Amino acid sequence: MLLTPKIESFVMHCGEMGSRWGFNRTIGQIMGLLLMSEQPLSAVDLSETLNISRGNVSMAIKELQSWRLVSVIHKPGDRKDYYAPAGDIWQLANRVFEERRKREMDPTLSLLRASIIDEPANAEEAYAQDKMAEIHDLLETITVWASELQSMSPEKLTTLMKLGSGVVKVLDFKDKVLKSGNGN
């Protein structure tokens, strides 16, 4: 695949962002390239286009498969494996959120649950358990909310996101109305 400057810029940016999304640079670049390619790409295509070793491509593809972000495609008469994104942008984003929840949030929630269930041994532990309970409740709320978002259609999610700060304004207005109704 020939990279135009615009596509190359995007692919390189995906590599830079990879570490912030829970991937390494190579995985980010490969995912970016696959997203920008109309046709599935082979490991050789990926290696040559990105100027990275076949071994790195192979390891990156395995990681992307473990995240369920790429699909293997076979072409009749061709023994090579070809790779393409495993769904549209919304499906891929949902998988990343789901995997990050499994890898990051769930273990943290488990640790917090185990830590707050026992009786504290002293005042310091009691204070620490109170803080852990607050963290647990926050993470649990975020997890439930994220799960609800993931079950929404892309159209509903887009509408919700477009509402943005408008929702906050409605909530602020509701608070003002409630306060004025209480004689405050």
What would you note in describing this structure?
The chain is mainly α. It folds into two domains: 5-85, Orthogonal Bundle (Arc Repressor Mutant, subunit A); 89-176. Helix content is 73%, strand content 7%. It contains eight helices and three strands, in the order ααβααββαααα. A three-stranded antiparallel beta sheet has the order 1-3-2. Helix 2 crosses helix 4 (54-66). The radius of gyration is 23 Å and the shape is extended. The mean pLDDT is 91.
Question: Could you provide a short overview of the structure?
Answer:
By secondary structure, this protein is mostly helical. The protein has helices at about 5-20, 25-35, 45-50, 55-65, 90-115, 125-150, 155-165, 165-180, and strands spanning about 40, 70-75, 80-85.
What is the H/E string? HHEHHEEHHHH
Distance between the termini: 67 Å
Task: Indicate how many domains the architecture comprises.
Answer: 2
How many whole angstroms does the radius of gyration measure? Answer: 23 Å
Secondary structure class reads: mainly alpha
Based on DSSP secondary structure assignment, what is the total number of beta strands?
A: 3
List the helices and strands and how they pair.
Blueprint: H1 5-21, H2 25-36, E1 41-42, H3 43-50, H4 54-66, E2 70-74, E3 81-85, H5 89-117, H6 123-150, H7 154-163, H8 165-181
Antiparallel strand pairs: 1-3, 2-3
Keywords:
single chain, 184 residues, Arc Repressor Mutant, subunit A, 2 domains, 73% helix, 7% strand, extended
